[in-house]
Every structure is written in C-alpha cells, then in structure tokens.
Specification:
single chain, mainly alpha, 72% helix, globular
Length: 634
C-alpha cells in the first residue's frame, strides 16, 4: 500500500486539472463528483498512511522517488515523509478540507464559475499537502509558493469587482516579502549543514549546542520566521489576511483553518530542533506572537463585518500559536493549530450560513433574531464560540491554557498579554453572536426571507461542532490530570535526530493560572453578550462618549492608511521620478526619440529639395556643374 501514498497530493492535482480544463463542459454534477471525490480519496489514503506510520517503531514513513536536483555538493531527493507531525497535518487538511468542499457545493451552487472555483480549491489542497509531506526544504518551498498562488486566485475569485483582485494582489505581494526570508533562510541552512534534506539537517543539529549570541543559526531561523510572519499573518505582515475576506466564505474557512495560515507554524515545528538552538529567535517568536494576539484581538472588538471579526480573530489565534512555539511548547502550539482548525472552520462556515440566510448581508448591525430562523447554524456556532473562548472542557480550553501556562514560565508579562487577548476574544465573539442571533431583527426584509441552509452546508457544521467540543481531550494537560497525549504523540517528530526527548513541564501554578484566565474569559464573554443582546445601542453610546478609542479600533489603528501614506505613496513617488528621469527622458527621450526626431528633421529638410519638378532638378544640376567647373578651373 505504501507505494500508492504519492497519490495523496496527486489526486487533488488531477481534480484541479479536470475541473479547470473540462469542468465547464462536463457540467456541475461532474465537477461536484470529481471535486469532492479526489479530496475524499486523499483523505482515505491519508488515513491509511497515518495508521501505517503509527505501526512503525519510530512512527515514520520515508518514501523516496529518486533524485530531484543534483549539482556540486547539493543533492535533493524527491521524497515524501509521513510521521506523527505530517500525518496529523495531512488528516487536518484532507478531513476539514473535504468538509469545506462539501459545504461549497451548497454555498456556490448558483455561481457561474463553479468549475473554476473547485479547480482552485483542489489545487490549494494539492499544494498544502506538498508543503506538509515534502522531505526537503525545496519541495516544501514548492508547496509554500503554491499555497500563495492559490490564495491569490481564490481571494481574487470575484475578479469582476474592484476590491477582490486588489485583495488578492495584496496577499500575493505581502507574502513575497516573507518568502524572500524563507529563501535566505534555506540558503544559510545549506551553507551551515551542506544539505537541504530536512532529516539530514535535523540529525546534524542534534550534535550542536544552543548558540550563546547571534550566530548563523539565529540568522537562518529569523529569516525563516520572517517567512512565517507572512504566511501566518503576524506583525507586521498580517495586513493581507483581513482583506482575504473578499473571496467566497468557503475560501476564508480553508485559508484560515486548514491550509495557508498554518504553514508558518508547521514549518517551525518541522524544524523545531534547529529553532531550539537559537534562543534569540525563540524569544522573538514568543513576543511577536503575544503582540499579534493582543493587537488583532483589540481590533476585533468593534468590527461590523461578520467575516472581518473572524479574520482578526484568526490573526489573534495564530499569535497564540507562535507564543506557544516561542515558549518552546512546539506540541502546545501545534495542538492549538489542530483545535483551531475545527472551531475556526466551523465559525467561518457558520458565518457563511448566516450570510446565505441574509441574502449576502455581512453587516452585524443589520442582523438580529436569527436563532429562531437558523437553529442549526445558531447551535453549531455556539459550539464554536465556546471553544474559541476556552470554555472549560472544550478543545480551545485545553490548547489555549497550555500555551498560556508555558508563556507564564517564559515571562509573566507574556501571560498577562495572552490573558488580555483572551478576554477580548470572549467579548467580541459573544458580541458577534448577540448581534447575529439575539434581539429584534434590524433588517426586516432580509429577516422575513431568512432560512436555514441546505444539508450540504449544515452537515459539515454539525461535524465540525462535535470536533470543536471533543477534540481537546486528546491534549488534556498534565496539570489537569491528563497526560497531554498529543505531546507524546508528536515527540518523535519534534525531536527527530536529537539525542534527547522533549523536556518535561516545570512546576508552576498551572491550575490557578487557568482558573484566572478562564474566569476572566467567562466574565468578558457575558459582558459582550449582555451589552449587545438587544442591539448595537451600547456601542453607539460608547462611540459617542469615546469617539477616539472607538474610531481607532474600528479603523484598525489606521495601519492601512499609515502604510499607504508613509510607505506606498513615497515608493510610488520615487518610482515616478525614476520612470520620468530614466525611462521617459533618458531611455525614451535621448536614446530613442532624439535620434528619431533628428532623422525626421533631416528628412524634412531634404524633402524641401524634392519638389518633383523637372526644371528645378535641371537648375540644380546646372548650378552643381557650375560649382564643379569653378572648383577645377580656378
């Protein structure tokens, strides 16, 4: 069976090719069967590979398909690796990806670009699986660049509008900045280890001691982290992700839950032994993650677009993942990737169901009272909300508080920042729920025509709701009487090539810290619900009393405006100067237009003597002969 595992990424690629080339002629039925079938096939194969890998003594399957690149001392194999880390990630991508594909059948059924949409969606899954399974950094980078391409295509899916293509381009260009960092990081690692095969790098790193100061590995890991800030939307390269809402809602769910934004966290986990050798980098990762978690959470407090609230929530939750990684909790950070995939896919697809019911209305201030109209959507979104706020017993509770505990061990200040961000999360999520489902309808026409979504949309919501509530028990921390089984499961991958296992937890007041953060989260969640259950009146009063604070948060700290004013506008001005000076004046003017103008002037002057009259030509010849006679007979 092992010889067929290469089909795990190839099946979605075949689906993308079919739907892109033949889908429009084949019809929606064929597009649906192929689009869902290839992802389901990948899920089945990924499940088989997962259990085959699990039965191996070292929980690892290395599949080699020959040499890919060879020049000088560089030799890169074309191979795939399935271990506890990549195997778990494969199931996330194919499992949740399949649910999102199924949801898309109902959500996109009336769209003219149905085949094109599923082609892009399948292609996204292919590149993400390539990133996950690649045995070398170059192959991982192929997937890394591919998901960037697919995000551009899907965010800009509604290309006939003005905003969507701009949002897609913004995502593409922002990620190019980060990708430069990844390229530099790979080159530095090759210079340090003489190989780009991940297993060889990790094996060699096992014989090294952590760098005391700023060394080669610190520089390499910082460059890789720059790439991670782009893909996983951390400060300062987070700007593209909120605008990614321009694409269809299933795209938002796929990007935010199972694919692109998790790439940066996955890359760091894949190279965890190398990152542990760079304490400076680890500290930077932790503080950037904490700052992003708080920064994005405060922006989410007063956003009115239902998808924008969830978008900034994703940026904030990704910050928690990086906070966990920076605190040396690679398993904890990845565990939050896993739990977040379930509840954030649920929340985005639930938001899509609300938008579908409200005839594409996304303004929270125009909703209200929908819990009686869309009962399944309401109940499933409650499940997602209690999970993301960290309600005791839900998946988000275990993964969030494990990260906060590790953050406290690294620095109590990091814990305080994390708790404040968690309080903001509880507030804005229950604000979203209250404005959407409670109170009186504020758009009576849309409310009268509101209805529950079809089964193709509600079934994925129910499956995701169950996962959001229950999957946390895979990682019950030791402080709560569990064994943090996901940490034990991931240990072989996170410490591959090392001579030691993962470090155990230090003693600390884990239960007390969790009690404080959970209690505060519940209080702020209740506050968000109580202030908005009857409508947005409280916020309007707050805006009138504190206009500066409300405007600052509503307008996202004016970061986009600041980037436009202080970065993009000067670059455009300088570009125009260079264009006019070098291109227009020197190249076009002196190099091209001036010789042409001189030729035209000379031609015009010469044309004065080309009158077409024989007598003028005879006179010219006579004058010429007279001049010659004068010269020679003088």
């Amino acid at each position: 069976m092992n010889k067929y595992y290469w089909l795990i990424p190839i099946l979605p690629l075949l689906g993308a090719a079919f739907n892109g080339l033949l889908g429009k002629r084949a019809g929606k039925g064929a597009v649906t069967v192929v689009g869902l079938g290839v992802v389901l096939g990948s899920l089945v194969l990924a499940t088989s590979a997962f259990f085959a890998m699990k039965s191996m003594p070292d929980h690892r399957l290395a599949l080699s398909y020959g040499e890919w690149m060879a020049t000088g001392t560089l030799s890169v194999p074309f191979g795939l690796v399935i271990d506890s880390l990549s195997g778990t990630m494969m199931l996330i991508v194919t499992g949740i990806g399949f649910l999102i594909h199924l949801y898309s059948v109902g959500y996109m059924h009336g769209d003219e670009g149905y085949a094109r949409f599923f082609s892009y969606l399948n292609l996204f899954v292919f590149f993400m699986l390539t990133l996950i399974m690649g045995s070398s950094l170059p192959l991982m980078f192929v997937g890394w660049e591919g998901v960037g391409l697919c995000s551009y295509l899907l965010i800009g899916y509604y290309y006939e509008t003005d905003f969507a293509p701009q949002a897609g381009l913004k995502a593409f260009l922002t990620n190019r900045v980060g990708d430069l960092g990844v390229s530099i990081g790979m080159l530095v690692l090759f210079a340090a280890f003489g190989t780009l095969t991940i297993s060889d790098i990790l094996t060699q790193s096992g014989h090294l001691a952590p760098e005391v100061g700023f060394g080669v590995l610190t520089f390499a890991t910082l460059m890789l982290f720059v790439g991670a800030t782009g893909k996983s939307a951390q400060l300062p390269l987070y700007l593209w992700l909120p605008d990614a809402m321009a694409g269809p809602t299933p795209v938002s769910a796929l990007i935010h839950a199972a694919t692109m934004v998790t790439s940066g966290i996955y890359m760091i986990c894949r190279l965890a032994p190398v990152f542990t050798l760079a304490p400076i980098t680890m500290t930077v990762v932790a503080w950037v993650g904490a700052a992003t978690a708080l920064f994005a959470a405060t922006i989410g407090l007063f956003q009115r677009d239902i998808k924008k609230v969830l978008a900034y929530s994703t940026v904030s939750q990704l910050g928690y993942m990086f906070l966990g990684l920076g605190a040396a909790g690679f398993a904890a950070g990845f565990f939050h990737v896993f739990t977040h995939a379930w509840f954030k896919a649920l929340l985005f697809l639930g938001a899509g169901s609300v938008i579908h019911a409200m005839h594409h209305e996304q303004d929270l201030f125009k909703m209200g009272g929908l819990k009686t109209k869309t009962k399944i959507t309401f109940l499933t979104m409650v499940a997602g909300t209690v999970a993301i706020m960290g309600f005791p017993g839900t998946s988000g509770f275990f993964s969030k508080d494990e990260i906060l505990y590790l953050a406290y061990l690294k620095s109590p200040i990091l814990w305080v920042i994390g708790v404040i961000g968690a309080c903001c999360t509880s507030f804005y999520m229950w604000r979203l729920m209250a404005l959407t489902f409670w109170g009186e309808p504020r758009d009576h026409h849309a409310y009268e025509h509101a209805h529950e979504s079809p089964l193709t949309m509600t079934v994925p919501l129910m499956v995701l709701a169950v996962g959001s509530l229950l999957w946390g028990f895979w990682g019950v921390p030791e402080a709560f009487g569990g064994h943090f089984r996901i940490g034990e499961w991931l240990n072989s991958a996170l410490t591959y090539g090392q001579t030691h296992g993962a470090h155990g937890h230090h003693e600390g007041p884990a239960v007390l810290l969790a009690l404080i953060s959970t209690t505060l989260g519940l209080l702020f969640g209740f506050l968000g619900w109580s202030k908005y259950k009857d409508g947005p009146a409280w916020e309007l009063a707050f805006a009138a009393k504190f206009p500066f604070v409300h405007s600052l948060l509503l307008n996202k700290y004016f970061v986009d405006e600041g980037v436009e004013l202080y970065l993009l506008r000067p670059i455009r001005w300088f570009g125009n100067v260079l264009w006019k000076l070098f291109d227009v004046i020197i190249i076009d003017g002196v190099g091209v237009n001036l010789p042409g103008a001189l030729a035209r002037v000379f031609g015009d002057f010469t044309a004065l003597f080309q009158t077409g009259r024989v007598r003028n030509y005879a006179l010219s010849m006579a004058l010429g002969a007279a001049v010659l006679l004068y010269v020679f007979l003088k």
